UniProtKB/TrEMBL annotation:
The modification 4-aspartylphosphate is found at D56. It comes from Alsobacter metallidurans. InterPro entries: Bact_response_regulator, CheY-like_superfamily, Sig_transdc_resp-reg_receiver. It comes from the Bacteria. GO terms for biological process: phosphorelay signal transduction system. Residues 7-123 form the Response regulatory domain. This is Response regulatory domain-containing protein. Keywords: Phosphoprotein, Transcription, Transcription regulation.
Amino acid sequence: MNAKPRRILVVDDDVLFQKIALRVLADPASEIVIAQGGAEAIGLLEIRTFDLAIIDLGMPEVGGFAVIRAMKQDTRLRNIPILVITGNHCGSVVSKAVQLGVGAILPKPVRWRALPSMVEEMLDRPTSAV
């Protein structure tokens, strides 16, 4: 009996990032879903279930922090592990991400070889109860 695929939401407005993420994370045990930005991500989170969210913080209109806050305010979504991608390495951004309960931070430029192992580690962590 096959286990259901793990569903990973990738939220980034950069098309090149999306294409590389799809290639790097390609795995028969995973379904990768792309959201072009924060608003689309929030819409997808309302209608689908995900096992992990990879979210770029620096997006126009609805940014990554808005998506994370929306997830943390929804009891159905608050325990989904979150990996953030950011080009802003200042302490206040990192501190804010940690305060919001982000599981890991991957700085830009992304070390693509590190991404699959980070994803596996986050998916293997037990989620905390609500």
